[in-house]
Amino acid sequence: MITKFIKKHFFTLLLVPYAVGTIGMLLPVSRSFFMSMTPLMLIFSFALVMVEEGKWTKFNIFPLVLIFIGGFAVEYVGVNYGYLFGDYQYGTILGSKLGGVPVTIALNWAMLCIASRSMVNLITNNKILASAIAAAVVTAYDVLLEPVAIRFSWWWWDTVSVPIFNYVCWFGFSFVFQLLFRKVPITSGRSYWMIFVQAIFYWILLLM
Fold it and tell me: Whole domain around residue 32: which residue ranges?
């Protein structure tokens, strides 16, 4: 019942929360409240993408668990040792942390992997090529996200600018995570719209 409702009203459930969130962030009087809602929005986005792509994600529960654990692990190493991505730290906006890493970040890795693969399936279903293009999509997403995250203290870097190695790691790990997927159909759902909507949301925040 819930799954049918979500699939039927996918675009409404996607657009309305982000439209309201955008307005809330633009208004100084409500900005702090909507900032505090960021963890819930990340969880909601993950759930929406998972349900929309249920046709193939149900065959990929184990790979998604590995992506969740792997995403958390690489972030943990990055935050605590600086060996991956660079020297950076997370703020409190993204919610509860384990070892300095917000749990929602691991969910975000999984969400991006699903949504980007959904997008790439419109072009090709070749596993290696699809994984490479999806990894490039996720990396481009991070290029837009970084200045927004820094501006709103979601995380920050110890260096003046974001190191190039950060983007190399984003591509590399995204590529590996994509290779974990199996039985991805040629025709997938509409979860790729999540990337477009979030990109517009981040772009608006950059212009504030």
Answer: 2-207
pLDDT in tens, 53-90: 998 998 999 999 999 999 999 999 999 998 899 899 99
Question: For residues 89 and 155, is the Cβ–Cβ distance under 8 A?
Answer: yes
In eight-state DSSP terms, residue 187 is S
Cα–Cα distance measured from residue 81 to residue 84, given in angstroms and rounded to the nearest whole number:
8
Q: 3-state SS of 74-129? A: HHHHHHHHCCCCCCEEECCCCCCEECCEEHHHHHHHHHHHHHHHHHHCCCCCCHHH
Query: Global pTM?
Result: 0.93
pLDDT tens for residues 84-121?
998 999 999 999 999 999 999 999 999 999 999 999 98
Domain count, the chain: 1
Task: Give a three-class secondary structure readout of 122-158.
Answer: CCCCCHHHHHHHHHHHHHHHHHHHHHHHHHCCCEEEC
Structure tokens at 150: 């820094």
Q: Tell the residue number behind the tokens 């995250």, with chain if given.
A: 149
pLDDT value at 186 more than 80: no
CB atoms within 10 A of CB 158: 10
